[in-house]
């Protein structure tokens, strides 16, 4: 059991971090700062949770491209399972955010995973990644979301007299 947690610590920490973000971004009263319907939550969060297991990886694991792809994806899957099992989200909601979360996790695993080995020794990098969604979402909320209402009028012209119709 100890070996399981040691081998999967990054996935577990990443999934719990994502669940924590999900809960914080939905707290009533924090609507002005955090929103589930933000670019930060949809695109930046999967990148952040995809990077967390890579920081927990050993040097041998981080060199393997299969690990750099699978561990971020597994983190997203575990996060989705936690959301579904705790009934925070339904399957349809998870299905909607599946594509951005998988794209974010895969991208960070492939592109950023290669550079982590060199830079992960600096102590502030992981902390910066963890804090990033909390910093960017309040800034994003300061910009108004454009909303417009449109009216559609449909007319059908019939070339016939009223007696013919």
Question: What attributes does this structure have?
Answer:
68% helix; 6 helices; mainly alpha; elongated; 165 residues; 0% strand
Describe this structure as you would to a colleague.
With 165 residues, the chain is an all-alpha fold. Helices cover 68% and strands 0% of the residues. Helix 2 crosses helix 4 and helix 2 packs antiparallel against helix 6. The longest helix has 29 residues.
- By DSSP (H or I, 4+ residues per run), the number of helices equals 6
pLDDT averaged over residues:
81
Q: Secondary-structure element order, as H and E? A: HHHHHH
Give the proportion of residues in helices.
55-70%
Give the class from helix and strand content and strand pairing: mainly alpha
What Rg is obtained from the alpha carbons, in whole angstroms?
22 Å
Strand tally? 0
Uncertain spans:
none
Note the overall shape: elongated
The N- and C-terminal alpha carbons lie at a distance of 80 Å
Main beta sheet, described? none
Beta-strand content bin: under 5%
Layout of SSEs?
Layout: H1 2-24, H2 39-55, H3 59-63, H4 65-85, H5 91-119, H6 124-141
Task: Provide a compact summary of the structure.
The protein has 165 residues and is mainly alpha-helical. The chain has helices spanning 2-24, 39-55, 59-63, 65-85, 91-119, 124-141.
């Amino acid at each position: 059991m100890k070996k399981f947690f040691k081998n999967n610590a990054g996935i577990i920490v990443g999934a719990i971090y994502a669940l924590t973000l999900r809960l914080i971004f939905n707290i009533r009263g924090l609507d002005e700062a955090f929103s589930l319907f933000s670019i930060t939550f949809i695109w930046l969060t999967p990148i952040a949770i995809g990077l967390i297991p890579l920081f927990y990886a050993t040097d041998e694991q981080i060199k393997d491209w299969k690990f750099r792809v699978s561990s971020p994806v597994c983190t997203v899957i575990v996060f989705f399972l936690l959301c579904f099992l705790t009934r925070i989200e339904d399957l349809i909601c998870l299905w909607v955010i599946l594509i951005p979360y998988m794209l974010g996790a895969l991208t960070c695993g492939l592109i950023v995973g290669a550079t982590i080995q060199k830079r992960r020794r600096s102590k502030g990098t992981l902390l910066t990644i963890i804090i990033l969604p909390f910093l960017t979402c309040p800034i994003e909320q300061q910009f108004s979301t454009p909303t417009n209402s449109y009216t559609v009028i449909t007319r059908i012209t019939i070339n016939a007299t009223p007696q013919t119709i």
